[in-house]
Amino acid sequence: MTGWQLRDIPFKFQLSDLTLFSVPVPLQVRAMRLVDEAAPSGSFEPPTRELVNGSQGFVVRGQPLQDEVRVLSRTSGFYCYVPSQYQHCYIDLRQSFEDYQKKFSSKTRSTINRKIKKYAEHCGGTIPWKTYKTADQMREFFRLARIVSKSSYQERLLDAGLPDSEDFIREAEALAAEDRVRAYLLFDGERPVSYLFCPVSDGVLSYSYVGYDPQYMDKSVGLVLQWFAVQELFGEGCFRYFDFTEGQSDHKRLFSTHQRHCGNVYMLRRNVRNAAIIYSHMYVDRFSVWLGTTLDRLGVKAKVKRLLRFGR
Prior knowledge:
Elements: E1 5-15, E2 18-31, E3 57-64, E4 72-75, E5 78-92, H1 97-101, H2 106-122, E6 129-132, H3 138-151, H4 153-156, H5 166-177, E7 181-188, E8 191-201, E9 204-206, E10 209-212, H6 221-236, E11 241-243, H7 250-255, E12 258-269, H8 272-297, H9 301-310
Parallel strand pairs: 2-3, 9-11
Antiparallel strand pairs: 1-2, 3-12, 4-5, 5-11, 5-12, 6-7, 7-8, 8-9, 8-10
């Protein structure tokens, strides 16, 4: 696992994909990794280390959990808040691509092949896509991928678009110089329509930045690019896992070979401000879940999500 780092962690207040606002809280953070051997936990105590100056507590991201745990509890002068519990999806790349394909049912394989064939027909028979992994390729990747990111709902609604700062690009170039980046672009002719950016650490690729042009939503361009990227990664044969990181989705479940129950565990000092943030965040989350369930029951959830993401 990574060491503790003091960061401003944003508590995002969201309704479905729409971020209303966020409140930054300075916390000491560490992240569990797939390569860490950590036993699942069902109860939590604050670390024995002291809080650094300015810190309001601790957060462990990707903590393996034994089962569903209480969202909010109190312990040793801290609030223990676990707002996010999810199935952490990943692909074990230590097998052949042929064996990997066996995890899919014949119906699912047929569906994937049909979507790839459909996009190939749209492109005139051959699907143009490209892998970027060397330092001198990074600027081209960012120039083209940023065209897609600007229009993606990840950037417009989730503030999770591909960064375009000079510092980030230089960091990507440094990683690429050490063979620690894989990035992918899917095209329609000369036009970039989907991207995937994956830094590498200890043989694990991280599903860090992904996006697609909303005008190509009905062409499954994200699925097509993911399939080509995974096929190539199996062919390289030099990585351990493809980590879909925190959160879950149908896309992650579809491609993953394994899942483990995880959560983000926050331990905040017990004071009035932190209590207000936690309780407000918890009740907004509950309202968001209730709203989603209600819209689903009325049969309009998919339409509303599409409207929020793509404006149509």
